Amino acid sequence: MSGELALRGVDKRYGDIVVLTGASAAFEPGRAHLLMGPSGAGKTTLLRLLAGLERPDGGEVTLPSGTRLAMTFQEDRLCDNLTATANIRLPHAHLRGAALEAFLAREREALGAVGLPVDSRPVRELSGGQRRRVAILRAVLADADVLLFDEPLKGMDEKTVEQVMDYVCPLIAAKTVLWATHDPREGRFFPDPTLWEVRDGGVFHL
Ligand SMILES: Nc1ncnc2c1ncn2[C@@H]1O[C@H](COP(=O)(O)OP(=O)(O)OP(=O)(O)O)[C@@H](O)[C@H]1O
């Protein structure tokens, strides 16, 4: 793949609100990058720019060509009327036959590993913490090269966090991960994370 996951001189405003001004950063592939910074500083905006969900007002956002992206959102973005398994399977609608069977087995194993039952309830009937786990599994099982996580563990109790990350860490250890968080201790989930701070319109490598 050519090109890098980077911002070059990026400006981003929402009306009168200036979020980024001339922000530049390059994120090394195959590594986890923790995005810290005060509330409202622009971590979500940065992830949305990298995902192509927002366009910069100035400068450029680049991705390696052919990058497959997956993202979790603070508000989960699940399909409320579908089950957990159907939500996780959404990026795999093309699978058939043996490949589908193999994915379904992997999905069942994943749900069990993070303490979720395989059941017929739509996700609207799940708790906030259960829904969050479904969203995380959908992203990590999506076969992406770059994973963008927006405060994925927010609101989860410590025991559930450990259970979820025991399963998730080996799956994403070699991927390019951007992980927005307010808790620097979450760096322990990654082999050699880099730390970034989004503040005052910039994105700074700490
Ligand atoms: N769609 C939007 N329209 C208008 N303003 C927005 C929009 N999205 C974000 N903002 C504003 O941009 C700024 C950055 O928001 P952003 O959500 O990126 O911050 P954040 O660092 O992720 O915050 P938090 O840690 O609270 O999640 C905030 O002032 C926010 O109010």
UniProtKB/TrEMBL annotation:
<feature type="domain" description="ABC transporter">
    <location>
        <begin position="5"/>
        <end position="206"/>
    </location>
</feature>
<keyword id="KW-0067">ATP-binding</keyword>
<dbReference type="InterPro" id="IPR003593">
    <property type="entry name" value="AAA+_ATPase"/>
</dbReference>
<dbReference type="InterPro" id="IPR027417">
    <property type="entry name" value="P-loop_NTPase"/>
</dbReference>
<protein>
    <submittedName>
        <fullName>ATP-binding cassette domain-containing protein</fullName>
    </submittedName>
</protein>
<dbReference type="InterPro" id="IPR050166">
    <property type="entry name" value="ABC_transporter_ATP-bind"/>
</dbReference>
<dbReference type="Pfam" id="PF00005">
    <property type="entry name" value="ABC_tran"/>
</dbReference>
<keyword id="KW-0547">Nucleotide-binding</keyword>
<dbReference type="InterPro" id="IPR003439">
    <property type="entry name" value="ABC_transporter-like_ATP-bd"/>
</dbReference>
<dbReference type="GO" id="GO:0005524">
    <property type="term" value="F:ATP binding"/>
</dbReference>
<keyword id="KW-0813">Transport</keyword>
<dbReference type="InterPro" id="IPR017871">
    <property type="entry name" value="ABC_transporter-like_CS"/>
</dbReference>
